[in-house]
Design brief:
Layout (H helix, E strand, L loop, with lengths): L4 H36 L2 H4 L5
């Protein structure tokens, strides 16, 4: 596989096709992680008017 140029070209094409979706998933995941981190840090618990 490592020396198969046709396989390598196809793998690269597949990666390029999913590039935008991969970035979108990463950004959504990071956003959800940061939200959960903020909620669990107690920031919102000590500032109930922000909820």
């Amino acid at each position: 596989m490592a020396n198969d140029t046709e396989y390598q070209a196809e793998a690269l094409t597949i990666c390029q096709e999913f590039e935008a979706a991969d970035w979108e998933a990463l950004l959504i995941g990071e956003s959800e992680y940061e939200t959960q981190r903020s909620l669990s840090s107690g920031f919102f618990l000590s500032n109930p008017n922000l909820l």
